[in-house]
Amino acid sequence: MSLKTIELQIAIPRTQDASKIQNELNERSNHANAQASIAVVKEDEKRRKTVIKNGATSKLQTNLDDKYNKEKDEQSLPKKSRSDEGEPSTNHPFKGHIIDIRG
Predict the structure, then answer these.
(1) DSSP type of residue 99
(2) d(CA 15, CA 21)
(3) DSSP 3-state assignment of 89?
(4) Which of 13, 40, 69, 90 is the most exposed place for a label (fewest CB within 10 A)?
(5) How many other CB atoms are there within 10 angstroms of residue 28's CB atom?
(6) What tens digit of pLDDT does each residue of 38-78 get?
């Protein structure tokens, strides 16, 4: 199946057109991939900043809760136990250290 000269006059310009179209399609897909990767990077950066903001807020809230609980505990202790805070608590030498789970 050989091509004649007249057929070649038509076929060669069409191959150039086809290569241009194929090149444009490749460029479109490359451009779409680049845009998608940029969007992913921006979204990741936004998520990272959001986590930092939420983490800082929760840390601050935890500190405030601890301070509030400490003040509440100090107020709820009876006056007698507040004065006993200076004495160390005596622990029994062996009670409560071993749990026997054998039936």
Answers:
(1) -
(2) 10
(3) coil
(4) 90
(5) 10
(6) 999 999 998 888 766 655 556 666 766 777 777 767 767 66
